[in-house]
Specification:
Elements (H helix, E strand, L loop, with lengths): L8 E2 L6 H5 L2 H10 L3 E3 L4 E4 L2 H9 L4 E2 L28 H12 L2 H5 L2 H18 L1 E3 H18 L9 H10 L6 H6 L3 H10 L11 H10 L5 H14 L2 H16 L1 H9 L4 H11 L5 E6 L3 E3 L2 E3 L4 E5 H4 L34 H18 E6 L4 E2 L8 E3 L1 E6 L1
Parallel strand pairs: 1-2, 3-9
Antiparallel strand pairs: 2-3, 4-6, 5-13, 6-9, 7-8, 10-13, 11-12
Helix pairs in contact: 6-7, 6-17, 7-13, 8-10, 11-12, 13-14, 13-17
The structure holds 3-methylbenzoic acid (OVV).
Length: about 400
């Protein structure tokens, strides 16, 4: 198409508390406004339809990551931390770092962790079922990843309480410098110092995923400093994402007990059910890209060097792509959701995320007839992530 149309404009603030508490009506308005929408409050573009989000994620040459994947443009203001050499990088640097992580996180490599992850899930879930009442966030969605993931990476037990605060810093920092950002950064210095102290070769246990990154230094693929930066990526991307994802899974099954019944009857649905959780309540809601050139999207001209906000979670409920998008249906084919992204930056840890969820959901499916909500769950607002702060549950055992 070579006719140009006026750009749709919206006054929506996607980082306001009001938006973050219930983004779905706003997502619908953004999808309806057009294939790409100008958000006048921030002077950025937004895409909320499945096709456009997917196309942008697939075209890394037009929509780059090296200017940052948050609101801030690294070419105009200094980043709050040295840029990630995988998330906030383009080829050829990205290609080299990604190759190392792709190998370390391959499905076959992750399968080696399966027995340990399943054992830990069984022991935690048995305890919670005996207890009957628990908080789905603190006692499960946080407790499980905070045990199995640092163990797998090979991080000391001491100081692990810094991992969630660091994740909050990382994911809030993709948004504007609003109240959420400032609150997350309140104790930034000590938290960052602890994280960086855990990223050196000497701090990592033998046989873990962390030390495997340093083995790529010995084979000449990375420098010692780059290896440390990739351990930092593990600690940035590997905790909060799965905490919010497991919490959202429990929330979905407490809210839709008939869907939990289906899982219990057919445990072969568990894998697809987690994909449906990711589609329906995406723990990662958004990422930005930056245009490297002028580009036309549905007849609208985007300039060079402009920020584009990609609404992964809105793409996941686009009626152009999904039947009954607002229905939580564990039997649907939910693959094709955008929660893991796609293209060269598609989530490199997705096999690990799936392993965690399958271990937990399988352990519950053997023992739990239903999850009862004991009170109103409270949201944990974040500029990028969607999930809960509290989720009071009671288990009805099988
Ligand atoms: C996917 C992701 C999220 C947050 C941080 C990073 C990656 C990183 O590489 O630091």
């Amino acid at each position: 198409m070579d006719t140009t149309i006026d750009r749709p404009v919206s006054a929506i603030d996607p980082f306001s508390r009001e938006f973050l508490r219930d983004p779905y009506p706003h997502h619908a308005r953004l999808r309806e406004a057009g294939p790409v929408v100008w958000l006048e409050q921030y002077g950025i573009w937004a895409m909320a339809r499945h096709q456009e989000v997917r196309d942008a994620l697939t075209d890394w040459q037009t929509y780059c990551s090296s200017a940052g994947v948050g609101l801030s443009d690294f070419r105009k203001e200094p980043p709050w931390r040295p840029p990630s050499i995988i998330l906030e990088a383009d080829p050829p640097l990205h290609t080299r770092t990604r190759a190392v992580l792709t190998r370390i996180m391959s499905p076959a490599a992750i399968n080696i962790l399966r027995a340990t992850f399943e054992r830990e899930a069984e022991s935690l879930v048995t305890r919670l079922v005996d207890q009957r009442e628990f908080d789905g966030i603190a006692d499960l969605a946080e407790a499980y990843p905070l045990k199995v993931f640092p163990d797998a990476v090979g991080i000391s037990e001491e100081g692990r309480e810094n991992l969630l605060p660091y994740g909050s810093m990382v994911f809030n920092s993709f948004g504007p410098r609003n109240e959420l950002f400032n609150a997350a950064m309140a104790n930034a210095g000590p938290v960052r110092d602890w994280i960086m102290s855990r990223c050196s070769r000497a701090a990592l246990a033998p046989n873990g995923l962390g030390i495997q990154i340093f083995e790529a230094v010995d084979s000449g693929e990375l420098s010692e400093a780059e290896a440390g930066m990739l351990v930092r990526s593990f600690l940035s991307a590997g905790i909060d994402t799965t905490v919010y994802g497991l919490g959202n899974a429990l929330y979905c099954f407490a809210s839709y007990p008939e869907q939990w019944m289906l899982l219990r009857e057919s445990p072969n649905l568990i894998r697809g059910a987690f994909e449906e959780v990711l589609r329906f309540e995406a723990p990662v809601q958004t990422f930005f890209r930056t245009t490297t050139r002028q580009v036309d999207v549905g007849g609208v001209r985007l300039g060079q060097g402009e920020k584009v906000l990609l609404f992964l979670a809105a793409a996941n409920r686009d009626p152009r792509r999904w039947d009954k998008p607002d229905a939580f249906d564990v039997k649907r084919r939910a693959t094709g959701h955008m929660t893991f992204g796609t293209g060269i930056h598609g989530c490199v840890g997705q096999a690990l995320a799936r392993l965690e969820s399958e271990a937990i959901l399988s352990a519950f499916a053997k023992r739990v007839a239903s999850f009862e909500l004991m009170g109103q769950p409270e949201p944990r607002l974040n500029n990028t992530l969607r999930g809960l702060d509290t989720l009071p549950l009671r288990i009805v055992p099988v």
